[in-house]
């Protein structure tokens, strides 16, 4: 569907996740130019506005009034006003208010424009040293232990990095649950206070993380990243697997070597030699 041309524009503007310098020139320009800024917490955003000399009028739009305030903002947009949506930190609508307003604007044919910038999820992923080619973002884990453990169970065989937001007072409980449900050896990263004075990146096993963070009072904002589950170890002995594959007579030595090399994480040439040995046994 093509972009509508009538009415105003809703700009979804990313703001810093700690360091006030992490805002784009375009974001500053738009925050100065729009008719109104819908902010998650106007008092919180005042600090950013004062720092950059932004005097645009603000109105509060947060999780408790988004349904009602969204109607008002939509009417303003329909009558031609330009509005910027910001949250306390990072990108609006990502574990933050905004999803509902954006959807309504789209349904009403209002132009919605991204003004990208910081996001704790992407920032943490970019420095954690875990696989980034594929990842899943799951926001906050449930605060209640039963539901949290059930959700963690879903990551037992997850083949991609999982990015989670976590509250500091829950981190140690969550790490204990990870040890319990996924095992102490599961690799993870904890990115704490990114872009701020006390920035910390912990990388290691769940058991090591529990020991590290369990020893102190955890403070600040946290992104928890779970490494992909380690590949399941084949249950059958390799020589036995080779015997079975050869016995079917359906695969060439080369194809068997490729399969066994992948299954047992060895080189294709080593698998090929092993396959020849097994074929030799039969003669
Ligand atoms: N929309 C935001 C974004 O795009 O980053 C996220 C909002 S969510 C309500 C706030 C959570 O993001 C925090 O509880 C924490 O888990 C994470 N977070 C925000 N700033 C952070 C920082 N500087 N360092 C680590 N985590 C941060």
* CATH C-level name of the largest domain: Alpha Beta
Q: In percent, how much strand structure appears in the residues?
A: 15-25%
Unreliable spans are: none
Number of domains: 3
Alpha carbon gap, first and last residue:
67 Å
CATH architecture of the largest domain, by name, is 3-Layer(aba) Sandwich
Spatial sequence of strands, sheet with the most strands: 3-2-4-1-5
Count of runs of 4 or more consecutive helical residues: 11
Percent helix range: 40-55%
Using the CA coordinates, give the radius of gyration: 26 Å
From the spread of the alpha carbons, the general shape counts as elongated
CATH topology name of the largest domain: Cobalt-precorrin-4 Transmethylase, domain 1
Question: Any overview of this molecule?
Answer:
- This protein has 283 residues and is of the alpha/beta class.
- A 5-stranded parallel β-sheet has the order 3-2-4-1-5, sandwiched between helices.
- The chain starts with 8 loop residues before the first strand and ends with a helix.
- The model has no long low-confidence stretch (mean pLDDT 93).
- The radius of gyration is 26 Å and the shape is elongated.
- The chain has 3 domains: 9-118, Cobalt-precorrin-4 Transmethylase, domain 1 (3-Layer(aba) Sandwich), CATH 3.40.1010; 121-226, Methyltransferase, Cobalt-precorrin-4 Transmethylase, Domain 2; 235-281.
- Helix 6 crosses helix 7, helix 7 packs antiparallel against helix 8 (206-214) and helix 9 packs antiparallel against helix 10.
- It has helices at 25-33, 42-52, 66-78, 99-107, 120-128, 145-153, 171-182, 206-214, 238-248, 253-264, 268-282; strands at 9-13, 36-39, 58-60, 83-86, 111-115, 135-140, 161-166, 187-192, 200-205, 222-226.
- It is built from 11 helices and 10 strands.
- Helix content is 42%, strand content 18%.
- The structure holds S-adenosylmethionine.
């Amino acid at each position: 569907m093509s972009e509508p041309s009538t009415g105003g524009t809703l700009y979804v503007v990313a703001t810093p996740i700690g360091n006030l310098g992490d805002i784009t020139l375009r974001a500053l320009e738009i925050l100065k130019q729009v008719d109104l800024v819908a902010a998650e917490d106007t008092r919180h955003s005042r600090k950013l506005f004062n720092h950059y000399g932004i005097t645009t009028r603000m109105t509060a739009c947060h999780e408790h009034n988004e349904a009602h305030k969204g109607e008002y903002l939509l009417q303003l947009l329909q009558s031609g006003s330009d509005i910027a949506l910001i949250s306390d930190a990072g990108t609006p609508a990502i574990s933050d208010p905004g999803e509902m307003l954006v959807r309504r604007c789209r349904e009403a044919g209002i132009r919605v424009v991204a003004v990208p910038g910081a996001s704790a999820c992407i920032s943490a992923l970019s420095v954690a040293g875990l696989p980034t080619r594929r990842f899943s973002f799951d926001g906050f884990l449930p605060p209640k232990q039963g539901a949290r453990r059930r959700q963690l169970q879903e990551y037992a065989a997850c083949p991609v990095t999982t990015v989670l937001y976590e509250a500091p007072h829950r981190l140690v409980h969550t790490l204990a649950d990870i040890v319990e449900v996924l095992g102490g050896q599961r690799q993870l990263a904890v990115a704490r206070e990114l872009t701020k004075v006390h920035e910390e990146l912990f990388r290691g096993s769940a058991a090591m993380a529990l020991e590290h963070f369990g020893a102190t009072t955890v403070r600040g904002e946290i992104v928890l990243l779970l490494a992909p589950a380690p590949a399941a170890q084949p249950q059958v002995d390799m020589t036995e697997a080779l015997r079975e594959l050869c016995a079917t007579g359906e695969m060439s030595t080369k194809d068997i070597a490729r399969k066994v090399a992948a299954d047992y994480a060895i080189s294709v040439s080593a698998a090929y030699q092993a396959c020849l040995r097994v074929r030799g046994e039969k003669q």
